Amino acid sequence: MRIFMDTANIEDIRRGVAMGVVDGVTTNPSLVAKEGIEYRDRVLEICEVVQGPVSAECISEAADDLVEEARRIAAWNEHVVVKIPMTEAGLAAIKRVSAEGIKVNTTLIFSPNQALLAARAGATYVSPFIGRLNDAGHDGMAVVRESVQIFEAFHLPTQVLAASIRLPRDVTDAALAGSHVATIPANVLFEMVKHPLTDSGIERFLADAKKYTPV
Ligand code: G3P
């Protein structure tokens, strides 16, 4: 499973990339709004740092407007993946821009049927929102698992990108569900590195290492 960061904070992205495990980044209007910077400027900065897929979201609603916006956003940088929401107009736009070679991440996926439709339209990624489904009393990870199963059964090349992740355990569950990618908030990614037994183990090794001459 590939690891993306779900943030628009450039310092966190630099830190994640420096760890050597970040393959891409996903952004959305809410994440960029928190940063107090223009959307395009931040996306370009992120592309420079991550050198991998960077999702940037369309905010148009009609199909023709989405197509025009997707073309414009995709032209910002070779790494840009255009995020289009799951609507009828969104599907029509995905079909058209995917045929032009523009990579699309279909956002706001809440059911395997939505995932199937986006895949048939030609999306590169579908993003089921795990946390928001769980918040509403549903089983978020079931949507990931079933979407993966459907894509495998019909050899659909679309990748499942588990989004709206809230806890380190969600990442494990997404991997076990066969998700191709998980997009992880910075705090969750940095938390995944840690374990109290790792810390105490390092402490003990360092203490014992003082008992001999360093090599
Ligand atoms: O980027 C989309 C998704 O990951 C948002 O997560 O926490 O706002 O539900 P959240």
List keywords for this structure.
52% helix, 215 residues, TIM Barrel, alpha/beta, binds SN-glycerol-3-phosphate
List the helices and strands and how they pair.
Layout: E1 2-6, H1 10-19, E2 24-26, H2 29-33, H3 39-50, E3 54-57, H4 63-74, E4 80-85, H5 88-99, E5 104-109, H6 112-121, E6 125-128, H7 130-135, H8 140-153, E7 159-162, H9 168-176, E8 181-184, H10 186-193, H11 196-209
Parallel strand pairs: 1-2, 1-8, 2-3, 3-4, 4-5, 5-6, 6-7, 7-8
This protein binds SN-glycerol-3-phosphate (G3P).
CATH class: Alpha Beta
CA(first)-CA(last) distance: 38 Å
Low-confidence parts: none
Report the strand count: 8
Q: Residue share in helices?
A: 40-55%
Average the pLDDT over all residues and give the rounded result. 97
Task: Kindly identify the CATH topology.
Answer: TIM Barrel
Structural class: alpha/beta
Shape, please?
Answer: globular
**Cα radius of gyration in angstroms:** 19 Å
Task: Describe the protein.
- The structure is a single chain.
- By secondary structure, this protein is α/β, with parallel strands linked by helices.
- It has a single domain, classed as Aldolase class I (TIM Barrel, Alpha-Beta Barrel).
- 52% of the residues lie in helices and 17% in strands.
- It contains eleven helices and eight strands.
- It has helices spanning 10-19, 29-33, 39-50, 63-74, 88-99, 112-121, 130-135, 140-153, 168-176, 186-193, 196-209, and strands at residues 2-6, 24-26, 54-57, 80-85, 104-109, 125-128, 159-162, 181-184.
- Strands 1-2-3-4-5-6-7-8 form an eight-stranded parallel barrel, surrounded by seven helices.
- The two termini are 38 Å apart.
- The model has no long low-confidence stretch (mean pLDDT 97).
- The chain binds SN-glycerol-3-phosphate.
- SN-glycerol-3-phosphate is lined by residues 6, 26, 28, 129, 131-132, 163-164, 183.
